[in-house]
Amino acid sequence: MHGWWLRRKHFHAGFMKDITEQIRVSEETHHHGELVVAIEAAMPSHVKSSAERALEVFGRLRVWETPHNTGVLLYIALDRHKIEIIADKGLKSAEHEWKAVCSGLELRFSEDQYQEGLTEAVIGLEAILAQYCTQEAGENGPNFLPDAPVML
Question: What is the CA radius of gyration of the chain?
């Protein structure tokens, strides 16, 4: 129940529209990576860990299916207060960069600042993608994955 309540309270349609636009603009102008945000109110009871579930969601949402293998999944399990980032093999960033984003998001969530936390996390992930998935001036390839957060 708690996860459903958090999702309804903090992740309403207007805020999700803002996050979608933030992802769209960044992918269009700053890099050729693909960021997918998945927010799950309640993890399925048969799943043992959030890392296992994040891998499952990564596959089901086909985040791996980009030409340069530069897909990134930000998975949030609201009921278990877990955050996972799964990056495809084409991204050569250091593990500590992903962990820093997770830590910042966890801190904001613990302070009941869900919208601020998610906004900052998306900005941080887009910065990592811009660093490792640079695009040439004027290059604007196709968008392979949806920009809107996926509500599970």
Answer: 15
pLDDT tens-digit profile, the chain (152 residues): 788 888 888 899 999 999 999 999 988 888 889 999 999 999 999 999 999 999 999 999 999 988 889 999 999 999 999 999 999 998 988 899 999 999 999 999 999 999 999 999 999 999 999 998 876 544 556 688 999 999 99
CA 99 to chain centre: 13
Partners of residue 150 on adjacent β-strands: 38
Alpha helices by DSSP H, listed for the chain, are 2-10, 13-29, 50-60, 95-110, 114-132
Whole-prediction pTM: 0.92
Torsion, CA 63, CA 67, CA 68, CA 72, rounded to 10: -10
For residues 8 and 128, give the distance between their C-alpha atoms in angstroms, rounded to a whole number.
29
Question: Would you say 76 and 39 are in contact if contact means Cβ atoms under 8 Å apart?
Answer: yes
Residues 6+ apart with CB under 8 A from 125: 35, 72, 74, 85, 101
